[in-house]
Amino acid sequence: MTEIRSTNEQDLGVFVDTLHAAFGRFPETPDEGRGVWWSALEMDRGVLATAADGRPVGTAGAYSFELTLPGAIIVPAGGVSAVGVLPSHRRRGVLTAMMRYQLAELRARGEFLSVLLATEATIYGRFGYGPATYTRQLTVPRHRGDFALPRAGGAAGPDTGTIEVLRRAECGEILEEVYDRYRRAQPGALSRPHRWWDLGAGQPPVSPAPRHVAVHRDADGVPDGYASYAIGESDTLTVDETIATDDAVFTALARFVLGHDLVGQVVFKHVPPGHPLRRQLTDFRAGQVGGDTDWLWVRLLDVPRALTSRGWFTDGELVLDVDDPFLGEHGRHLLTVRDGKADCVPTDREPDLSLDVRDLGSLYLGGTTPSTLVRAGHIRAHHPDAAPLADALFRAERPPHCLHWF
């Protein structure tokens, strides 16, 4: 018999040891409590599974984030992480029990959605999570990195700013402030609480790992973008992330790293799908796409509240018949959108679309079109006009993108 319970600060050591054992690893030794990813764990949000003899056999954690929805609307979101079950206790229902317990805890906190990054794409769909944002890697040989138009800044116009190179240790406050401005306007972006930056919890540039940072400043000297990078083997310059408040800033930072001396190629680790960088290059084929993958997965816990919380950009009505098999729930909702606001109420009308809650999670941020999931056989459209209308309704002002690792 497995017992599932919430954790507290006294459980931190057991939680960390159990989680690492689940993945066959050992905890890193923190440098004065800094620079390890698990240093930001919120133990009042953790879940611990114990066997009949009291031994810990499974963990699940959650962070307190804010998520930016379409329309630049910011809402609380539980960021699920640190999920693991000891190899000796897998396929015994431990993970399912922890997920059910955790979803109830998230609801009790008043959160209407949760998010996660999936180590394996086959695990979390059965718990109601669907992939909602996507990212890719772009590799450009430096000798083919010329831009087609000199000083082109994209839709935002020419760049009038400057770039300064700093070390990661010199510019933590700048990174934190610029990222926060960026994430508040970018659909799909998560907050990075000050505690994460202070503890160096996560991957670069949040962690204190040695990095150079190209900081972009506008004409008034205000930081409005950065690129965190390091040069490794084979003369490869790898950009951890490029944060920019507009296209001109991104282009300026891309120009900078592509013009770096003694570099054979530049790897941009996180580029949003559809980003114009490849088309800005003289040689379109110079930008080689790789690592095209899902990133943020979304799980809706209160469908009407979720649908009325985001912004909308097309008027219309849809009847959504939503099944939630993991929680044993089902609802038929009339979604009415007028002037950017939505109303969502129960209805007996015939549905336009029938779908699983995990598929609604994929649609929610506008990164997956309903017609794609109709064609894939995930969503049932009850008449020919349903999918095109849903495509128009669920679109965001720009593709959602998430850079934060947790």
Give your account of this protein's structure:
- The chain has about 400 residues and is of the alpha+beta class.
- The protein folds into three domains: about 5-110, Aminopeptidase (3-Layer(aba) Sandwich), CATH 3.40.630; about 135-290, Aminopeptidase, CATH 3.40.630; about 305-395, SCP2 sterol-binding domain (Nonspecific Lipid-transfer Protein, Chain A), CATH 3.30.1050.
- The chain is built from ten helices and 19 strands.
- The chain has helices at about 10-20, 95-110, 170-185, 195-200, 245-260, 275-280, 305-310, 355-365, 370-375, 385-395, and strands spanning about 5, 45-50, 55-70, 75-85, 115, 130, 135-140, 160-165, 210-215, 225-230, 235-245, 265-270, 290-295, 295-300, 315-325, 330-340, 340-345, 355, 380.
- Strands 1-2-3-4-5-14-6 form a seven-stranded mixed β-sheet, sandwiched between helices. A seven-stranded mixed β-sheet has the order 8-9-10-11-12-7-13, sandwiched between helices.
- The longest helix is centred in the N-terminal third of the chain and has 15 residues, at about 95-110.
- The chain is globular and about 60 Å long.
- The model has no long low-confidence stretch (mean pLDDT about 95).
Key traits:
406 residues; alpha+beta; Aminopeptidase; Nonspecific Lipid-transfer Protein, Chain A; 3 domains; 7-stranded mixed beta sheet; 10 helices; 23% helix; 32% strand
Question: Which secondary structure elements does this structure contain, and how are they paired or packed?
Answer:
Layout: E1 3-6, H1 12-22, E2 47-50, E3 56-69, E4 73-85, H2 94-108, E5 113-117, E6 130-131, E7 134-141, E8 162-167, H3 172-185, H4 194-199, E9 212-217, E10 223-231, E11 236-244, H5 247-258, E12 265-271, H6 277-280, E13 288-294, E14 296-300, H7 303-309, E15 316-324, E16 329-338, E17 341-346, E18 353-356, H8 357-364, H9 370-375, E19 380-381, H10 386-394
Parallel strand pairs: 4-5, 11-12, 15-18
Antiparallel strand pairs: 1-2, 2-3, 3-4, 5-14, 6-14, 7-12, 7-13, 8-9, 9-10, 10-11, 15-16, 16-17, 18-19
